[in-house]
Amino acid sequence: STAGQPELAAQGQQFLLADEPAGAIGILEFREETAAASDEELSAPRDVVLLGKIGGGGQATWSPTSAEFMLIDPTFELEAGDHVCTDGNCPFCKGKDEKDKAQAIVSLVGADGQVPASPVRKLLPLEEGQIVVVRGQAEVNSLGVLVVRASGLAIRR
User: What is the pLDDT of residue 60?
Assistant: First the structure.
C-alpha cells in the first residue's frame, strides 16, 4: 500500500536544497580542521557544510525508524591503483587507517528541531553510494562520533 506516502514525500521536500551550498568540505578535512580543538569545543555545535558519500563503510547505512543515515568521506574508499604516496596530505592516503574518523551520522532536523520518525528513504530519493552535501550543525559526541544535525541536503548529480 502507498497510503501515507505522499505526505511523507512532501515532508521530505523541506530538506532538499535547490542549490548545493558553497564551501563544502569532506569529513576528514573537517576532522583535520578541528584536531586541535578541546573536547568542550568539539561538543559545541558548529555550522558546517559537509560533502560525503552515503554509506557506512561496512556498517548499517540507514536508520529503520528515523531520518538518519551514515555518511563517509568520499576519498576514504578510493582505489589508489598504481599510486605511490609522497605527501602526508595525499587525499588517497590520508586517514585510511582511521575509518571511524571518516564517518558521520547525519540526522535530518525539521523546522521544529525534531528528527522525523520516518526512515529517510521514505522522505527523500537517496541511495547508497550517492554523493551529497549536507548543511547543518556538527558536533563530536562523547564517543568521538561526528554527528550532523542537517537542516538541508543537496544530491550531487
Answer: 86
Compare 9 and 20 and report the one with higher pLDDT: 20
The alpha carbon of residue 16 and the mean position of all alpha carbons in its chain are separated, in whole angstroms, by: 14
Distance in Å from the first CA to the final CA of the chain: 30
Torsion angle of C-alpha atoms 47, 51, 55, 60, degrees rounded to 10:
-10
Quote the CA–CA distance of 106 and 135 in Å, as a whole number.
Answer: 10
Mean pLDDT of 116-125: 92
Q: How many CB atoms lie under 10 A from the CB of residue 125?
A: 10
Q: Model's pTM, two decimal places?
A: 0.80
Exposure string of 138-153, with b = 16+ CB inside 10 Å and e = fewer, is bbbeeeeebbbbbbbb
H/E run at residue 121: helix 120-123
Choice between 32 and 68, residue whose per-residue pLDDT is larger: 68
* Cell 520516518, located at residue: 118
